[in-house]
Amino acid sequence: MAIDEAILEAHLNSLVPPTLRLYQFSPPAVSLGYAQIIEDNIRSRILAAGFDVVRRPTGGRAVLHFGDLTYAFICSSKGAQISEYILVSESIATAYKQICQALIIFLESYGVGVTVGNTRNNYKDKNDCFLATTIGDLQYRGNKLIGSAQLRRKHAVLQHGSIILNQPQTLMHELINDDIFDANNHHANLYEITKFEPSITSLEKEIIKGFQKTFNCRFIPEELTTYEQGLVNRLKHKYQNLVNQPC
């Protein structure tokens, strides 16, 4: 999480271009939305099961990072007036739709058709992000497959998202005990839909293609800059102490 915030800050200061980062959590973890509060007994249960707990700089509810692939997309909104940069709308709802389009193209490459979520679902009374869908999420036949959340600092935009690959349906429920488990209201697993398991490398390549096509750009692999790494070293201490309070 410190790395994603560091990239956001570097981009805000025009030190790095728009960035797409793809990764998996090691060890696996539950990430909390920036304003989400969970009870101490739930946190203890998660840790006792061998999972870390971390707070995201983005909003939303708890996400289980196990059997998933996470993306972080950092860019600018149109209010930035930076013509050479990838620009998304100043409207949060429209920006979600733009970024969702890149993910829709990615999923279509595997023959998976999805629809954008809505805001009619109960959301803030749930601990588990994947028990409800919003306009920033993608669902397959009514079940959430990709959940996303966004953060803005002036013109800079960070959007996080989790793509569920092969996560056990009851695992998150066992960790956070969010209501009674409902077999009819659960997440979608990409590998179950495709009937085969694309490699992480294959998935990453298709995600990159989706973003490149949507935003008419080309991503070049780069290491963190010295400036970004310096920010990471400072920010990681903040995230180590933010589990029981908002950012």
Concise overview:
This protein has 247 residues and is of the alpha+beta class.
Shape, please?
globular
Task: Classify the beta-strand content into a percent band.
Answer: 15-25%
Q: How many strands?
A: 10
CATH superfamily: Bira Bifunctional Protein, Domain 2
Class computed from helices, strands and strand pairing: alpha+beta
Percent helix range? 25-40%
Order of helices and strands: HEEHEEEEHEEEEHHHH
Tally of domains: 1
Low-confidence stretches: none
Average pLDDT level: 91
- What profile does the largest beta sheet have? 7 strands, mixed
Could you characterize what this model shows?
This protein has helices at residues 2-12, 40-48, 92-108, 171-176, 190-194, 200-215, 226-240; strands at residues 19-23, 29-32, 52-55, 63-65, 68-77, 87-88, 115-116, 138-140, 143-153, 156-164. It has 247 residues and is α+β, with helices and mostly antiparallel strands. The chain has a single domain, classed as 2-Layer Sandwich (BirA Bifunctional Protein, domain 2). Strands 1, 5, 6, 7, 8, 9 and 10 form a 7-stranded mixed β-sheet that branches. The protein has a 3-stranded mixed β-sheet with strand order 3-2-4, with helices on one face. Strand 9 and strand 10 form a beta hairpin. Helix 1 (2-12) crosses helix 7. The model has no long low-confidence stretch (mean pLDDT 91).
